[in-house]
Amino acid sequence: MAKRARLPSLVEIALFEHWKVSAAIAAILLVVDAAVLPILQSSGIPVLKTFGLAAEPVGYILAGAFALIAALNRYVLRRRPRRKYSLAGTGNFRATQAMERTWHAPTIGRTVTSLYDRPDAWTLELLLSLEWKRFQDLCMAYFEEKGHAVECLLLDTEGRTAIKVQQGEAEFFLVQCAAGAEEAVSAAAVKLFCEVLNHRKIAKGFFIAAGEFAEEARAYANTNGITLMTGSMLMLMLQRLPDVAQKRLLALAAAGDYTTPTCPACGVKMLRRKSRRGEFWGCRNFPRCRQKLYPVSVSAQVGA
Q1: Which residues cross the membrane (predicted)?
Q2: pLDDT for 55
Q3: Which residues, in sequence order, are CB contacts of 126 under 8 Å at separation 6+?
């Protein structure tokens, strides 16, 4: 016999739904205490009178508790800073009506559903189809295969990340990754990465993109000593690894669902959703998390 799904309790609803839900529950309890219980207390029926007297203080306590939850949801919990990633700093983000950052993601409908769909060789289309987190993990794994110690660094309070690659005991460099395929990486994105390097006094930086770089970005990188790597260059680098290493990284890149984007705030796979603006990826922890990623076309850069 199938196990029945557990219904959420009133407290769970108050904690995780909109603050107005908690406020409404508090208001209902106050109305019951002020209007209904006095009628029971003045009743000539002993059981109802006893219940009315006993329930009055409990009602006020519960009303106060739900009012407090509403206040916390409204003024504290909803204003906590969310951890946000700039999808490896491409700068290809746009503001929603709520002025939150959103990032581009692989085209909706490209999710791998069968083992037979999995690639058995490196292709540019594969690199372009990787969601932002998987692309960054692949770049980290590549440098590990080359014998370097790596770690993912949080660059600022907005959640921008980069890969720190150790070169020897004291020397290291930073790697910025840019997944997605909608447009060439802009000069503004490269400039932002350069500012990070200068602020941290790091002499060497690599910017790896699954797609291409704009001409202005190439010129700025050449002037400021940043090495740019396109998806085509990364594919050649991967193909030059030993066969065993290639298979290991290919298994990492194509494991599970590698096209559905990961929520930058929660680290879970996102869900396809629709709105008046069209299709997008939304966090499965909504409404606690309101991150959105918008789909882009992969075929634009692979000639399909």
Answers
A1: 21-40, 60-77
A2: 84
A3: 119, 253, 254
